[in-house]
C-alpha cells in the first residue's frame, strides 16, 4: 500500500497493517509451494487464513465504531 495514501488516513493504520500481514502470508504460502511443491497441511492453513481474516474484520469494526458518538441518542429524527 502506498504510504502517501495512508498518511492521509492515519485512522486506517491498524487495518492496513492487518491487511499487509494477510498479503504477506499469502505470498509466503505461494513462495513455499513454488519452491518445494510440497503439500500443505490444509487444516492448519485454513485456521491461519481464518485467524488473519478475523483480525481484518475486527480492525474494520474498530475503525468504523471509533468514529461513532457514544453519547448520541439511540434514535434520530430525520
Compact overview of the structure:
With 78 residues, this protein is mostly helical. It has helices at 3-7, 13-36, 42-66. The mean pLDDT is 87.
Layout of helices and strands, plus pairs?
Blueprint: H1 3-7, H2 13-36, H3 42-66
**Could you tell me the radius of gyration in angstroms?**
18 Å
Oligomeric state of the chains? Answer: single chain
> Given the helix and strand composition, which structural class is it?
mainly alpha
In the residues, how many domains can be counted? 1
Distance between the termini: 38 Å
Description:
The chain has 78 residues and is mainly α. The longest helix has 25 residues, at 42-66. It is built from three helices and no strands. The protein has one domain (7-66). Helix 2 (13-36) packs antiparallel against helix 3 (42-66).
Amino acid at each position: 500500500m502506498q504510504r502517501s495514501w495512508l498518511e492521509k488516513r492515519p485512522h486506517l493504520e491498524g487495518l492496513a497493517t492487518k491487511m499487509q500481514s494477510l498479503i504477506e502470508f499469502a505470498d509466503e504460502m505461494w513462495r513455499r509451494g513454488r519452491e518445494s511443491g510440497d503439500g500443505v497441511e490444509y487444516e492448519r492453513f485454513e485456521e491461519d487464513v481464518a485467524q488473519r481474516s478475523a483480525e481484518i474484520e475486527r480492525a474494520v469494526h474498530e475503525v468504523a465504531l471509533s468514529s461513532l458518538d457514544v453519547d448520541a441518542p439511540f434514535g434520530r429524527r430525520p
